[in-house]
Amino acid sequence: MKCVVLDDYQGVALANADWSGLDVTVLREHLDDPAAELADAECVVIMRERTPFTASLFARLPRLRLLITSGMRNASIDLAAARDHGVTVCGTGSAKTPPTELTWALILGLARHIAVENAAFHSGGPWQSTVGVDLAGATLGLAGFGNLGRAVGRVGKAFGMDVVAWSQNLTADRTEPEGVRLASSLHELLEQSDFASVHLVLSDRTRGLIDAAALGTMKPTAFLVNTSRAAIVDQGALVDVLRDNRIAGAGLDVFETEPLPLADELRALPNVLATPHLGYVTQANYRTYFREAVEDIHAFNQGTPIRELTHSQ
């Protein structure tokens, strides 16, 4: 079986699993249109949502039999189209802790102006040019209170923050045991937050949910952090409030187009602290992704696919 691994940005796929006995090609550079490179591929391994697999792409890959994604959910795969083209889709395990850790890296980086002070340190700039924001006593607002939101909230409590949460179906019986207040609406959550962090799943209900009106309720001293999905926040409205300093800043790990174009205005805004979608990028996660991808391939070749994703997921 000819297998192609896409978007191995760091060049670590082969080192993180035993691919012996498999015909594997690894592509490190992102391809906007990978069809030509995948013409002979029977198996493709993709990393998260770096390359969408749409109905039109499946139609151009008649030899494809197996598609493997890291994680057990990938909104950029058209699972119905995969089924229609006879392609089995399998996933892998994925740890919850790395995105939580990166969320806090962004919050702390914003609060203590780490990027500014580090740049000044290395360039010979001023010794101390900023004044940090205290976390203790500040309000942390969580848009979404699933596994990731709860984990982020627990760290906030450890810092002495007042933590408040909201999502469409969230009830007090889930927040109170965590010592977290329940906001009655998204606007109330954002109005109260000194740091607002997004932990919602992207869906038809949440796409564009944090729009201009919602962002307009935030304090001018508040920060927005998004390590979930870019499309949950109206990107044009976000650029507007950042450009006009209507909020203090944003910590971003996710973008509607990835890699983000060099000309995108977010790259030029000084009140944006950004990472290139690193939330899941850790040594332990990569070992899980690639080792279980190899397991998926062997199981498929033996006629017993494992960790299948279906159109109903």
Features:
313 residues, alpha/beta, Rossmann fold, five-stranded parallel β-sheet, 10 helices, 12 strands, globular
Number of alpha- plus pi-helical segments? 10
Reported CATH architecture of the largest domain:
3-Layer(aba) Sandwich
Task: Give the biggest sheet.
Answer: 7 strands, parallel
- Element order: H for helix, E for strand: EEEHEHEHHEHEHEHEHEHEEH
Helix content: 25-40%
CATH superfamily of the largest domain, by name, is NAD(P)-binding Rossmann-like Domain
Radius of gyration: 21 Å
N-end to C-end Cα span: 27 Å
Gross morphology is globular
User: What is the CATH class name of the largest domain?
Assistant: Alpha Beta
Strand content: 5-15%
Structure class: alpha/beta
- Order of strands across the widest beta sheet? 8-7-6-9-10-11-12
User: What is the strand tally?
Assistant: 12
CATH topology category name of the largest domain: Rossmann fold
- Global mean pLDDT: 96
Residue stretches low in confidence (pLDDT < 50, at least 5 long) are none
Count of the separate structural domains: 2
Structure description:
The chain is an alpha/beta fold. The chain is built from ten helices and twelve strands. It has helices at 55-59, 79-84, 97-111, 114-123, 147-158, 172-175, 186-192, 212-215, 235-243, 283-301; strands spanning 2-5, 23-26, 43-46, 66-69, 88-90, 139-143, 162-166, 181-182, 195-198, 223-226, 249-252, 272-274. The strands form two sheets. The protein has a seven-stranded parallel beta sheet, with helices on both faces. Strands 2-1-3-4-5 form a five-stranded parallel beta sheet. Helix 3 packs across helix 5 (147-158). The protein is globular and about 55 Å long.
